[in-house]
Write a structure and sequence with these properties.
alpha+beta; eight-stranded mixed sheet; six-stranded mixed sheet; 23 helices
């Protein structure tokens, strides 16, 4: 696939998404699709669409399309999406790009002085503006992203500081997004030329015992070299890392930062290092069992993504890494047989030192592998040959599309696997956790919810997939999508994601017996009775979440608390049960 094809595909997907009612306008669909790519590729986490535009005066013009708030790191990301209405690729001018950045900055400044007071609560950016006003003293970093389906060949403005708040800027144009998505599934193509590109080699000792499945080396890598490699190759290096979705790259890990800054010579002693795999290496043998590696092919970091990303951030922040050395274990797999399973276990056991990572996602987890297999062989019960595509690894859909060598085969693939039928792992987890009546976890964001879901998978509280389970999962995705559209049509404001999660959870609490998943699968739709029921429950949920126990509580944060769910049950006259003690059930 070339860039022109990718651009055309996004435009077609946007038109389709608008026509079937997922978005109110094609422009909003473009915003959603481009933001979805950035979230799926883990550039920004938990993006919320919050479109706002005021252009009655060029000096007062304001615009924002979406946002994400990383409370842990006190970082607010503001995205502005510029859609060029052209069937062909066009370039955005420097003036247009700079105007976009200025409009976002102007929105932030106005939000700080209380612009939300002039907005209706149903305005899509009301919650964002209110949050900025209430949390402005807490926000330490504002990242402004220009996202576009055009080509934007400019350098973003330099970082700056304003009233103790750091502002940084980034550009994600169609070409950069295409290259980012195109990295998915290409791990084997990673070639790290240590000697030629980084003026460095890694001295490593080879395991003495010969093994038919693998070779193993241990050694150390200079901190600046590792930081530079990650800075240039990014998320592609940790595609197989079960921790890759954790938000390590959003800020320098405090412990690593302090060590680099205060005791860089102690880094080797304090840090466990990284575990890596490669398909093969180029090296010089120095003496028995010691080699100097100067090229790594298919190199992946399967444990140590946080260390790597944090060193890269330290490097970008001009901290001196000259005395930092990172312990490295390198495994060379000699055969492709069971390769994914072996890498998954290397990653899992390397991470077992930290409790949270035992529940982290791995695309090669047998649960996800089975879901993928089921999705490839089960067709929708209709005259048209269509199936749902379970994406167990990021960017998998585009990889499969690219494997179709002719335009005719690509067209046929998209017909049989429409983009609207792609189910990402995080979407599946979100839909199933809603029906498991855990809306407060879903409200914490895709990644947090996914970790919790995988804990249930690992503990056996979610059954291993079979054909019936898979069909019911798809039915729940359909139910979620229909509920999302219903809530959007009610125009309740900027809490749509929370209302949808709580509405489905409440529907399952009240009317689970009436939700016929087999029928939804067969019809690929919900019936009118369920639609009216969801509409009624959505209004009840809206009334509930906008009236927290303590007046003035931030609604978004309120929805993340189990107390919010329990109070909803109480207000509906339902018994409050400890959700965490539920018996095993079909998710």
């Amino acid at each position: 696939m070339i860039l022109d094809d990718f651009h055309a595909m996004i435009s077609e997907d946007a038109r389709e998404a608008h026509e079937i009612g997922r978005y109110r306008t094609t422009e909003e669909a473009i915003e959603g699709i481009l933001c979805d790519y950035l979230e799926e590729e883990q550039v920004i986490f938990d993006i919320q669409l919050s479109p706002y535009q005021k252009t009655n005066s060029s000096r007062q013009a304001m615009k924002v399309s979406a946002h994400a708030f990383d409370e842990k790191n006190a970082t607010l990301s503001l995205l502005v999406v510029k859609w060029e209405r052209n069937n062909k690729l066009v370039k955005m001018s420097r003036n247009d790009a700079n105007r976009m950045f200025k409009m976002v900055r102007r929105f932030y400044r106005n939000a700080k002085i209380g612009i939300y007071k002039e907005m209706e609560e149903t305005d899509t950016a009301f919650t964002l503006a209110q949050m900025i006003y209430e949390r402005q003293a807490f926000i330490s970093t504002v990242r402004i992203y220009l996202v576009s389906n055009a080509l934007v060949d400019i350098e973003p403005p330099p970082d700056g500081e304003e009233e103790d708040t750091l502002f940084s800027y980034d550009v994600w144009d169609i070409d950069r997004i295409f290259r980012l998505v195109g990295q998915a599934g290409s791990a084997a193509e990673n070639i790290i030329h240590l000697r030629d590109h980084y003026d460095s080699s890694i001295f490593m000792m080879k395991m003495q015992a010969e093994h038919q499945k693998y070779d193993c080396y241990v050694g150390m890598m200079p901190g600046p070299v590792l930081a530079r490699i990650y800075d240039e190759h990014g998320q592609q290096l940790i595609e197989r890392n079960v921790r890759s979705f954790l938000q390590a790259k959003n800020a320098i890990n405090k412990g690593i930062r302090d060590t680099v800054r205060d005791e860089p010579e102690m880094f080797m002693a304090y840090n466990n290092g990284i575990s890596t795999v490669a398909t093969w290496i180029e090296a010089d043998e120095l003496n028995q069992n010691v080699v100097s590696i100067h090229s790594l092919h298919g190199w992946q970091i399967v444990n140590g993504g946080q260390t790597t990303a944090s060193l890269a951030n330290a490097y970008k922040n001009n901290l001196d890494l000259s005395q930092v050395f990172v312990p490295v274990k390198l495994t060379i797999l000699k055969s492709n047989q069971n390769k994914d399973r072996i890498i998954a276990y290397i990653s899992k056991y390397a991470n077992s030192q930290n409790k949270i990572t035992m529940s982290d996602f791995s695309a090669n987890n047998p649960w996800h592998v089975e879901m993928e297999k089921l999705s490839r062989r089960i067709w929708v019960p209709s005259r048209q040959r269509v199936r749902w595509f379970y994406e167990r690894a990021r960017g998998q859909y585009l990889v499969e599309l690219n494997r179709q060598r002719t335009a005719a085969r690509q067209k046929n693939f998209r017909s049989e696997n429409p983009k609207s039928h792609v189910v990402s792992k995080t979407l599946a987890a979100k839909c199933m956790m809603c029906t498991m009546q855990k809306p407060y976890l879903v409200s914490k964001g895709s990644e947090t919810n996914f970790v919790k879901f995988m804990e249930l998978v690992e503990s056996g509280k979610v059954p291993f997939p079979n054909e019936k389970y898979y069909k019911h999962m798809v039915a729940k995705v359909i139910l979620f999508d229909k509920c999302d559209r219903i809530v959007k049509s009610l125009q309740l404001g900027d809490y749509k994601a929370n209302v949808v999660a709580y509405t489905i959870a409440l529907a399952y609490r009240l009317y689970e017996a009436e939700i016929d998943l087999d029928n939804i699968w067969t019809k690929q739709d919900i019936n009118e009775k369920i639609e009216l029921m969801l509409q009624d429950l959505a209004l009840r949920v809206w009334e509930h979440i906008t009236h927290p126990i303590v007046e003035g509580t931030n609604i978004t944060q309120w929805c993340k608390r189990e107390e919010c769910w329990n109070l909803l049950l109480k207000r509906q006259g339902l018994e409050i049960a400890s959700i965490e003690e539920d018996e095993d059930e079909e998710a």
